[in-house]
Amino acid sequence: MDDIKSLAEQIGRVLQTKGLFLATAESCTGGGVGYAITEIPGSSDWFDCGFITYSNTAKAELLDVPEALIAQFGSVSEEVVEAMAEGAIANSSAHVAIATTGIAGPGGAVPGKPVGTVCFGWAKDEHVHTERLVFSGDRQSVRQQTIVHALKGLLRFLEQAG
């Protein structure tokens, strides 16, 4: 947990220095990224809001993810997580967004997407980066690894996106 707190603190410093606000769009992490961020005192200076869009309907209604995109690629896809990140920015006052969607388990696996499959999206302006990873372990472990990777990825993204 100290690793998560340290990452969140670093993110806060970077966002505050750049004058940017963050939004989260989470599915499999159920608000875990937003929770980690808001554990940091003063996070209201750089965190705008979080969307927990567990269902496909919520992804479509709250983040404007096209239902056709979900139908074509599945909710656990780089295409959908990109749309989630873009939707978080479009539907908030944030400049930067992080999105997660995945299969934490123990069920939910589909052909080509085993339990532990997680897609990540980071967005700022016209820059969007996505990744797809497969984590091992139980539900709690997959979710924890997802939060850590999401935060580490955001730090890298902020360095690259400017």
From TrEMBL:
Domain CinA C-terminal: 5-157
Stretches assigned to coiled coil: none
NCBIfam families in the record: PncC_domain
Protein name: CinA family protein
Naturally occurring in which organism (per UniProt): Noviherbaspirillum cavernae
